[in-house]
Amino acid sequence: MIEAIALLTALLAGLLLGGRWRRGGVPAQEPPAGAESEALARIQAANEERQRIYRDLHDDIGAKLLTLIHSLDDERHADIARAVMQDLRDIVSRSVQAEGSLLEILAQIRDETEQRLATLQLPLHWEQAEDLPDPALDEGQALHLFRIMREAVTNALRHASPRQIRIRARLVAGELLLDVTDDGPGPQPDRRGAGTSAMRRRAQDLHGSIEWNRGTEGGTKVLLRFPLPAA
User: What pLDDT does 96 receive?
Assistant: First the structure.
């Protein structure tokens, strides 16, 4: 059931990103004038219809997810359902796509991850270099960074059964290096799966790369690297 809801969430994301909205449903391009006004009206009508559909789906799927979360005995499965629900909220509200600085986005990632692990009574070891710059990130960069890190944590909880998770952020030769490492005995995730494929695409959109390696404590390390924009 969780996988089916996750698939619906991904489909919603594709439609939303395909719409190229800004907040309030306004098209990203400047409104055309004169003879193109009818085309603009059709675009706006289509955007409004998409928004209505998303609201309806959010209410329906959100209610089902809450029921699922409260009915699951396995807390790890419940956490995955919570992550899917948060993905859905992100898609509908675009809350994590607001422009912000690197340090602001990292703070959001840390806060959400700590909350997720706290429900499982697992510690988060967060290591962030003091000399990190703080360039502004646009909506796309913030979204990709946030979603890659969330998926890495979800995979660790789903596949590895870890006792703890470590996240490190540091700067090397103008690139941000972010790694998520678990200490679990579980297998590494299938690198051909839909989740890891999406992570690769997001890393490419950041003009960076992502790789999966054995962690220093026997678990799995997910390493994301990408060049930072000028501060």
Answer: 46
